[in-house]
Design goal:
- This protein is of the alpha+beta class.
- Helix content is 18%, strand content 29%.
- It is built from 7 helices and 25 strands.
- Strands 1, 3, 4, 6, 7, 8, 9, 10, 11, 12 and 13 form an 11-stranded mixed beta sheet that branches. Strands 14, 15, 16, 21 and 22 form a 5-stranded antiparallel beta sheet that branches. A 4-stranded antiparallel beta sheet has the order 20-19-23-25.
- Strand 15 and strand 16 form a beta hairpin.
- Helix 3 crosses helix 7 and helix 5 runs parallel beside helix 6.
- The longest helix has 22 residues.
Length: 447
């Protein structure tokens, strides 16, 4: 009896479909399956790479780094058969993930009508796993227009649109994979079960990307026990994603949306866990949203969220602007002196300001609100606070003559937080800052 050799067609994941965007300025992985040891050639523009499939039929090549290009190029993948992929561009590719606030579509946004009308005026493409029920294997790329945009994540759409408007010669590819009402443990095996990570993120790897935007934490804010785990779950998730993508930390920025105002019982602890992650990782950035009015678990207007995420990218990834960060406290520079705590902030732009967002007017520096102070007993009381210098707020209370620590806007839904920098970005809430007594007596960087 003679047994014939089965010839399998070469295939690639649907991420390599018509209208795809490839990441510029990095080696671009292209992969798939074929017959064992089958020769596979990938042609794209003037570039051509050839490899052989493994004994199990897997193969991967890396295209050399390419500059951005809006030209509708063709990719051909040749083995026993030929796959032709049309209208492929090279630009910037970002992933958006998390739970319901990243999932919520543009069609539900307060700015939906104008955004959808504008959707075809910007060079964006979507790989929308979320709108496809989480099925990565059947999701394909779509060109941004009035038909595809309504199902797109509103936050991710506004993020990408601002990048596209600022970098008109660079195509923007947006991959969205988010699921409502999910805990962080679903999105990393190191954080827990990792079921959604395995089904909706791992199949995307190692597609070339610039970075990740992340909006999640509501589910983990329902109890202090869950919120406390967020302090280690968030960093471990980021490390796992970076490791499994095979990209170095310096090539893998991760942008977090800090939780806005809402009444979930432990949301302020998750906010602090997000802040601590940003403070401890040089390629993690975080937008602060505590100034946005309302306390709905699903803020109805997402344009400002996407805009602030885009500002971070425009400064730290593309070097096009400055002053994109909110003020974060600097524990090392802060001080205790004369019965007062001086809290020093980084990223103040031209200086700290007092501002009532709801009333749209600038207040006096002595009207700072939501500050508290505590002595060695750890009991916090409401405190007076004033902008002492460009980057410093001094906090005190006659009830606490020997202060040890201070905090700011540390509650589920602070009502009167009003500290911003001159760029209009709000200071992050502070769970606790405890400068050493007898430290520096100035906070303006001259000590």
């Amino acid at each position: 009896l003679m047994c014939g050799v089965v010839q399998a067609d070469v295939s690639v994941p649907t991420m390599f479909s018509d209208h795809a965007v490839l990441q510029r300025n990095m080696p671009v992985p292209i992969w798939g399956t074929a017959s064992p040891y089958e020769q596979v050639t990938v042609d794209f523009g003037t570039k051509s790479k050839t490899t052989k499939a493994s004994g199990s039929g897997d193969w991967m090549i890396f295209l050399d780094p390419m500059p951005a290009s809006s030209s509708p190029s063709i990719m051909k993948i040749t083995g026993n058969n030929v796959i032709t992929i049309w209208d492929v561009q090279v630009g910037e590719v970002w992933i958006g993930s998390g739970q319901s606030n990243m999932q919520r579509p543009l069609s539900d946004d307060c700015d939906a009508a104008s955004a959808i009308a504008d959707a075809g005026n910007n060079n964006m493409r979507f790989f929308n796993v979320t709108a496809n029920g989480g099925n990565v294997g059947s999701t394909v790329w779509q060109v941004s227009d009035a038909n595809s945009a309504p199902a797109m994540s509103a936050v991710h759409f506004f993020f990408g649109r601002h990048l596209a408007k600022e970098m008109t010669d660079v195509p923007i590819g947006l991959i969205t994979s988010a699921v409502s009402a999910t805990a962080i443990e679903k999105w990393a095996t190191c954080a827990g079960s990792g079921g959604l990570y395995t089904s909706q993120i791992v199949p995307l790897q190692p597609y070339g990307i610039k970075g990740v935007t992340w909006y999640q934490g509501e589910w983990d804010s329902r109890s202090a026990k869950d919120a406390e785990k967020y302090y280690w779950q968030m960093p471990c998730l980021i490390d796992e994603w970076r490791t499994d993508w095979g990209q170095d930390i310096l090539d893998f920025p991760f942008y977090i949306v800090q939780m806005p105002k809402m009444g979930i019982s432990a949301i302020h602890f998750v906010r602090d866990a997000e802040l601590q992650t940003a403070l401890s990782d040089p390629k993690v950035e975080m937008i602060v949203t505590i100034d946005i009015e309302g306390h709905d678990v699903h803020p109805p207007c997402k344009k400002e969220f996407g805009f602030r995420l885009a500002l971070l990218a425009l400064e730290f990834e593309y070097d096009l602007i400055s002053d994109a960060r909110s003020p974060f406290y600097n524990a090392a520079a802060s001080y205790v002196t004369g019965g007062k705590i001086g809290v020093v902030f980084d990223d103040v732009a031209e200086g700290l300001k007092c501002y009532h967002a709801a009333s749209d007017w600038e207040c006096e520096s002595f009207e700072l609100a939501e500050w508290e102070i505590a002595g060695s007993d750890g009991n916090y009381v409401a405190a007076e606070a004033v902008i002492k210098s460009t980057d410093t707020v001094e906090v005190w209370s006659p009830e606490v003559p020997n202060p040890v620590s201070a905090r700011y806007a540390f509650s589920t839904n602070p009502a009167a937080n009003n500290l911003i920098n001159s760029a209009g970005l709000p200071a992050s809430p502070i769970k606790e800052i405890t400068p050493e007594s007898g430290g520096p007596v100035c906070g303006d960087g001259t000590c």
